[in-house]
Design brief:
Blueprint (H helix, E strand, L loop, with lengths): L1 H21 L24 E7 L2 E15 L2 E5 L5 E6 L6 E2 L4 E5 L2 H29 L5 H26 L2 E3 L4 E3 L9 E2 L6 E5 L3 E8 L11 E6 L6 E12 L5 E8 L11 E18 L4 E3 L2 E8 L2 E12 L3 E6 L6 E3 L12 E6 L1
Parallel strand pairs: 1-21
Antiparallel strand pairs: 1-20, 2-11, 2-15, 3-10, 4-6, 4-9, 5-8, 6-7, 8-10, 11-14, 12-13, 12-15, 13-14, 15-19, 16-17, 17-18, 18-19
Length: about 350
């Protein structure tokens, strides 16, 4: 009975298989792949990739650091003498010109003494004149004339001293600039220790930053800098004008200052800046996308298009930027560089350019 059941089952399986074959249920495992899935990965067996025509361009070897804005000139306004403020002639945050009187202090006593000495000067000049005429006639001695001349010269010196003291009661702007906030009022008694206000000249603005000491041989006055300030997308430009002749032993950095135009007053002292220092510029450099360069143990290589096929070329690289790499040798202008499908490319492979830059 058991053998009969097995025989029946085997016969049933054979019948089912024959039926499926007639219905074409099983397909050949060697069917032709759909279009676009051939051995090359592209239509007609070609690998579709992007490319670019090699051109020369300017390459700037740049160093990125941080720094701050300084005023071109600045000072705290203070009086040279003690006294009472009579008048204030400036407004806070306002422009002033060199030589403008900013503060007038009480100088009445000095003015009175000066007036007195000017009367004495007139008297002594007349006396000296008379004594000189008498000396010419030998009517007086040389000593008497010398005493008259000395009194005149002493009076003139006293007048100069008083004029200097009177000038110190008037504070003038030493340069063009903008006055900051003031800390005194009219009627206040001040001394040389009191700060009246701060005067700033911010056009041009100074830019101060530091670079690692190893770049000391690559920076010099005249080098160009680009920089940005917080909250402003504009890129500003400046020029190095001074370099500290000493590397800081604590930080091993070299301090540098540059000047930048600031006619609109956007650059304010104390602002934090991101600086891009251009160390060197190359006019005819060959730059390629970083991802197009394949590193290997024996060097670096790229693929170019030659006769419709991919060609392997070994290159020597130089400066690396944020997204490009300088090619020193191996490529020349007008070569067609393959920039995508890098991992699939093989020397001699047929390729098709789908996008050319």
């Amino acid at each position: 009975m058991k053998k009969t059941l097995i025989t029946v089952a085997v016969v049933a399986v054979i019948i089912i298989l024959l039926t499926l074959l007639k219905l074409n249920f099983f397909k050949s495992a060697t069917m032709t792949p759909p279009p676009g899935q051939g051995s090359g990965g592209g239509r007609g067996g070609l690998l579709s990739v992007d490319g670019m025509i090699i051109k020369t361009a300017q390459l700037d070897n740049k160093l990125n650091v941080t720094g701050s804005i300084l005023p071109n000139e600045s000072l705290e306004l203070k009086s040279e003498v003690s006294g009472k403020i009579i008048s204030i002639f400036f407004g806070e945050g306002k422009q002033v010109r060199k030589g403008d009187t900013l503060i007038r202090m009480n100088g009445d006593e000095i003015e009175a003494q000066l007036e007195k000495q000017k009367y004495n000067q007139k008297l002594n000049e007349d006396n000296e004149f008379r004594q000189r005429k008498l000396l010419e006639k030998d009517a007086i001695s040389q000593e008497e004339y010398d005493n008259a001349l000395n009194r005149l010269n002493t009076t003139v010196a006293d007048i100069r001293l008083l004029e200097t003291q009177l000038a110190k009661t008037r504070i003038q702007a030493p340069f063009d600039g903008v006055i900051g906030l003031r800390f005194v009022s009219e009627g206040a008694y001040i001394s040389p220790n009191n700060v009246i206000a701060t005067l700033y000249n911010i056009s041009p603005a100074k830019l101060e930053f530091a670079v690692p000491g190893r770049y000391s041989t690559q920076v010099a006055p005249g080098k160009k800098v680009r920089f940005t300030i917080e909250g402003d997308l504009q890129v500003y430009e400046g020029q190095v004008y001074a370099i500290e002749p000493r590397i800081d032993p604590a930080t091993r950095t070299l301090k540098i200052r540059a000047l930048a135009e600031n006619r609109r007053g956007n650059l304010l002292p104390g602002q934090f800046v991101k600086v891009e220092l251009i160390l060197e510029s190359f006019q005819n450099a060959i730059l390629v996308p970083t991802e197009a360069v394949i590193p290997e143990q024996t060097g670096k290589k790229v693929f170019i298009l030659e006769g419709g096929k991919a060609k392997e070329v070994f290159v020597e690289t130089g400066i690396r930027t944020s997204n490009s790499l300088e090619i020193l040798s191996g490529l020349k202008p007008n070569d067609t560089l393959l920039t995508t499908g890098i991992l699939q490319l093989r020397p001699g492979m047929n390729v098709q350019i789908s996008k050319l830059d």
